[in-house]
Amino acid sequence: MNILVTGGAGYIGSATAEALIRxxxxxxxxxxxxxxxxxxxxxxxxFVQADLSDSHALAETLTGHKFDAVMHFAAxxxxxxxxxxxxxxxxxxxxNSLSLMETAVRAGVKRFVLSSTxxxxxxxxxxxxxxxxxxxxxxxxxxxxxxxxxxxWYRQIHGLHFAALRYFNACGALPNRGEAHQPESHLIPLVLxxxxxxxxxxxxxGTDYPTPDGTxxxxxxxIADLVSAHLLALDGLGESDSxxxxxxxxxxxxxREVIETARWVTGHPIPINELPRRSGDSAxxxxxxxxxxxELGWKPEHDDLQEILSSAWQWHKSHPGGYEEKPx
Length: 328
Prior knowledge:
By secondary structure, the protein is an alpha/beta fold.
């Protein structure tokens, strides 16, 4: 297939683009490089540097080639920041996604895979299924929920087949793909900056949550398992017109547990600062991914926290400062 990957210079988008090429697909990466890295774009992909808000560039890209599918990763992802500047998130994550859908439909695209999030759900003490109550606690989650709901209308009205993949906490690394966000907001790479000598300590935001150790609990899913789910979902849209799946390991780890595991993996003490809660953080988000396992045969292969942290640690040690950028 000929596939457009938006956000294909980012962490998960670039890894998926590489896997698609490896499977024999033709890939065009569309990325503004506002948060992505040119060096992360696979060498065999066609690269278009443009923003999704650039309607001319978007239309020219989608109509210039006959695309079979769009895989949409491009988004701002910092939940805390979304509570400080909501308009910026609604514009980039929802308005731009709407423009992408509309342009894709006009160009005859039949399949659309959305990088969504577990942040669409209410916090729960039970593993979250696809039917668990929705109720984002931050603007970031709301932008993704709006995009999912709009895709459902485009399915009904225009026949656009779509998959919404609700990630839990993406993490870990492949030999040539690791986390290097701009700015960095994810726990594992921030914690690993301490043994790397880039920070003096790690921060814990909130120690009074209703969890066993008082810190937030999250489900961590390795990037390799996320990529395999995207490829299965893309194929699944050949038979189904709507697929919505949770993607997680089913294991919940607290912030303190992640830091303690990082200490073990790196051999570094990693001092911590205990700070007040951040607005928009849920106490507990853990996945039940039984639906995608049952329907598509997906199985997470890298769900051990020590393995996840070890892969991330190896990548960060070999890529100090992140990617070595090459010209756009």
